[in-house]
Amino acid sequence: MRKQAAILCALGALTASAVQAQAATPVRTHAFKTPARMEMLRPGEVKPQGWLRDWCLTARNGYISRMDEIDQAFPRAWNRDFHPRGRYLDWEDPNKGAWCTEGGAYWFEGLVRLAWELDDAELKAYATRRLEPLLERMNPNSIAFVYWMDRTDPAQMAEVEKANHGFIVGASGRTTRAMLAYYEATGDERALRALTWCLDDPRFYFFGNPITLPAAACDTWRYSGDDKLAQAIDNFIATKPYPERWPAMRYGLPVCHDALRMRQRRDREDSGKTWDWRLQHGVLCYESMLSWVKASLWSGDGQYISNVRAWLDLHERVCRQPHGVVVADEQFGWAGPDRGTETCTVAGDILLYATLAGATGEGRFADHVERSFFNAGAACSSRDFMHHVYFQAPNRTKAEGSFHAGPAGKGGLYKTKHWPLCCTAALARILPGYVQWMWMKPSSAKAAKGGLAAMLYAPNTLETELDGCAVRIDTKTDYPFNETLSMTVSPARPLAFPLRLRVPEWCVNPRFAVNGEAVSPDVGADGFVVIDREWRQGDRVAITLPMLPRVETMRDFNDGGRPYCSLVCGPLLFAYGLPEQDENTPAPVSAKDGRPVRTDWRLDPLRAAAYAQIVRTPMPARWDWPLAAPVRLRTKSADGAPLELVPYGCARFRISMFPVP
Prior knowledge:
By secondary structure, the chain is an alpha+beta fold.
């Protein structure tokens, strides 16, 4: 099987190299009415280094390069031979259904981004081969990416819509991100053509749940300026009142006073009832919000993005877990130690908030991305990136959870795959997305005047251009496991431009130096400092973002408002890591002293804050989120016993929400 895959990859490499040899770097030649404050870069302009590269290589050798081996659905994803029709255009049948199209969408997005971020020839060839059927077979009469069906046939249009209100069109909308990433990385004009044919019919914009096509159309139009795309986007925005067949449309509207009714909805018991839009599936909500963010930029109507902000503020107040992402098991619910968050929602959260950070230029959205990524993102998968959870909860003292939807309690197990397979595929999106969005370009009529913005932090190398001048910035750091970063700025020639550095809201008294000399730029209202100067090869920027332990309190309204607290430092949530035999088997006794493992810890917020201190040791030679973590938080429990915590992502069994006595 491996030998066959290697041969196919070699064939794909010939195709990929031929395409790239003749393709020009894509340029966004058309502007929205309200331009995004920051432009996202292309896949491959930011490359991971240090501990982050270790994690990326593990992901590459795990799920991201091996998904075809995980389940029979994945080889069928958008391929030349599997063309579902009729009821199989829906997702429910695991053997014949069209779920693989959504799974392919999630997987391909991560596959393409990571291939170019690692500059991995084999992975690039593999990504090209998996997208080749769409590149080759798309045609102007296809129904979104369903190239084997004909939009000019009313019966076939009805056939698609009948299958879960056009589920496969929603899957097409997710697939556009992989295709757009491929176009941005390669300049292959077939990808832009396929995107245009997928998106140029306004009827498709109201198929599927969530509403994904408008966001993709806006991003594609930036490159093509295609009139049909523009008309389809305008039609979507002008269609009022918005269709309510799917609740996702509601997120473009203002929040109403009873917007979230916090109760559990048991899918199996309510299977014959209409979905309550106030209890919408987390990932579908976030996918739909992307279209409303783009609609705001497209139309110049700031109300849409204001509505999205209001919804998210509501979620933050009542649903957000200490790891950064909301309760979504699978619907929204009150935050609590045992409530679950779907891995799909973790991926959707990171994409949405990174998009908002770029659209608004506000650092607080990037703060959110870091918290979600370093905590919830790290806890989704096993250390070898070959097992994952469907749901994660802040506290996990036994293998299974108490979740009611999806795979229910067994969704808390680390498994090779869960049904539905959405979370298995969505894993591929999380890590490559973070890498690509670490740097952005502030909008400006002249590129050098906008400069560069460090949006997210971790070790990386940026290679891009400003005004035709190649610029490289190497960032060396152990962040977030340490608080110092060193950047080496190397333009091909002396070049004046502003360098924007995000200062997280949790950080007090940040320090900066250029070539060893302290500088004191003010932190702007957007959360960035600006160092504007002529940069020369080898200029060094030193950044210190002091991290002080903090105690956060919350109440579990699933349990009568019972009080809890958590400890955080910088973007990291800390947890009491229970010893483990493996990721699904806690150790009954401590390896240190042979005593039974204690799980009844309680914290008094004042005592915990008074005794909290951070202890750091050298980073391991290879990073795999070890329980023996290089940064620990020590404090005292409510009964005075010493308590040592590790980063949440390092503990597969853990307590991160502590009862307050």
